Every structure is written in C-alpha cells, then in structure tokens.
TrEMBL record:
The lineage of its organism: Bacteria, Bacillati, Actinomycetota, Actinomycetes, Jiangellales. Gene3D superfamilies: 1.10.1660.10. Transmembrane segments: none annotated. It comes from Phytoactinopolyspora halophila. Residues 4-53 form the Helix-turn-helix domain. This is DNA-binding protein. GO terms for molecular function: DNA binding.
Length: 65
C-alpha cells in the first residue's frame, strides 16, 4: 500500500511553505495531489517523482517554477 503525505509533510520535505503548495495546486503545478473529504493528500511516490523531474529540469538549465 502507498504512503500518503499531508500538505504539511510535503512542504517540509520540499522545504517550501504550505501556501506555495496550495498555489501550485491552483496553477496545476507541483506534485500530484488528491482529496479525501477536506484533506489534500499526496502519494509519496508522486512527490519523489516530482523531485526527480525537478532535478532533471534543473540540470538542463530550465527552472521548474
């Protein structure tokens, strides 16, 4: 079974703010997320893939944001 992370946990992992994650969701950027009721959750594998993609884009000289 997958491990699911809260917005706070993902923000800590990415060293960014929860409001940045909310903004990224609003503009359809950042790691994939989903809702269960009022909670926004992230699959740890999606967050790890987001980090790998950002690393690859960063090494090509293009910024993610």
């Amino acid at each position: 079974m997958s491990e699911y992370l809260t917005t706070r946990e993902v923000a800590e992992l990415l060293r960014t703010s929860e409001s940045t994650l909310r903004f990224w969701r609003h503009i359809d950027r950042g790691p994939n997320s989903f809702r269960i009721g009022k909670r926004v959750l992230y699959d740890r594998r999606d967050v790890e893939q987001f980090i790998e993609d950002a690393r690859a884009e960063g090494s090509s000289g293009r910024a993610l944001a």
